Amino acid sequence: MTTDSDIIRSSLSASAAFSELYDRHATAIHRFVSRRAGSDVADDVMSETFLVAFERRRDYDLERGTALPWLYGIASTLLRKHARTEARAWHGLNADHASHVSVDAFSEADGRADAHRAMEHLGHALRKMHARDRETLLLYAWADLDYDGIAQALNIPVGTVRSRLNRARRLLRASTQHDTTLRLEGAPWTS
Hints:
Blueprint: H1 4-11, H2 19-37, H3 39-55, H4 68-90, H5 95-98, H6 105-108, H7 113-128, H8 131-141, H9 147-154, H10 158-185
Helix pairs in contact: 2-3, 2-4, 3-4, 4-9, 7-10, 8-10, 9-10
């Protein structure tokens, strides 16, 4: 089977070969971006991810067999760029754009009240989390990358990945424990 490195190497002399990399990984990148920013922006960010990857393919470490962590890293960078643009829009720099920003996936959850409350608490915990820890957690949970893949995607040591995931898990655990305590305190039988 042809590795991603083989495809990228071939694309250096025959640029059309790069389309095979797109065919292999576009769905995974689209799914990851869609979970992070909603389906409204997923097509654009996914396309831009492969455009950036194509433009930077000469910088790719051909010793790596799979390019997926590299692509997730590019997508994560573009998502941060999108979030900054969105934040500027919400602060009035581009009011028209802000009126068209999609509702976050958390607010789309309209199931049972407990599920909605849990999602709100998790969303709050994620927003409260340092951006680096949140990015690491989402690459682990939503992109299904292992520690080495996350290290490659974010260009950080594996030990840093472990530290960030540990902090993120502690914050999420504390958030869910807090949510359980609030529900028990508000229950009719505790009065």
